[in-house]
Amino acid sequence: MGVSRLGISPIIPTVASFLLAALWSMSVFAGWGLEAFCGESPPVCSRRLATVSTVSGLFAAVAASFTLAAWLIPAARYDQRLFGRLMGTGVVAWIAAEGVLFLGGMLAK
Questions:
Q1: Is 70 exposed, middle or buried (CB count within 10 Å of its CB: 0-12, 13-18, 19+)?
Q2: Is 52 domain-assigned?
Q3: Which parts of the chain span the membrane according to its record (predicted)?
Q4: What H or E segment, with its residue span, contains residue 92?
Q5: How far apart are CA 79 and CA 9, in angstroms?
Q6: N or C: which terminus of the chain has fewer CB atoms within 10 Å of its end residue's CB?
């Protein structure tokens, strides 16, 4: 009797990664973060949020690197486990970037 294995399509973590990247980008570059956390507050809040965005950007850079590595490294494309590890790490890093941005934004108020 064979072992059945349920695999996840590679498109699911890829789409999740792109959606998290879009959310992070809009929060940092389109002003969503400023509107959500600072509103009509003094410029001190926006300076604090800029610092938080920089720290969050480090996690975002790691996330983007892992996501790109999963698709561009030939070994990852042929090895489903390696692809899953790289994409999983990328998604976790995107979640960390969003978390740092959210917690930092709450503290910047």
A1: buried
A2: yes
A3: 12-34, 54-74, 86-108
A4: helix 80-108
A5: 13
A6: N
3 within domain boundaries: no
Q: The tokens of 28 are what?
A: 């940092």
How far apart, in whole angstroms, are the C-alpha atoms of residue 88 and residue 65?
12
Task: Residue 46: give the domain boundaries.
Answer: 11-35+42-108
Spatial distance between the Cα atoms of 21 and 95, rounded to a whole number of angstroms: 9
Specify the number of domains making up the chain: 1
Could you tell me where the DSSP H helices lie in 6-79? 11-29, 32-33, 43-72, 74-78
Distance CA 9, CA 32 (A): 31
Q: What is the pLDDT of residues 40-96, one digit of tens each?
A: 877 898 999 999 999 999 999 999 999 999 999 999 989 989 999 999 999 999 999
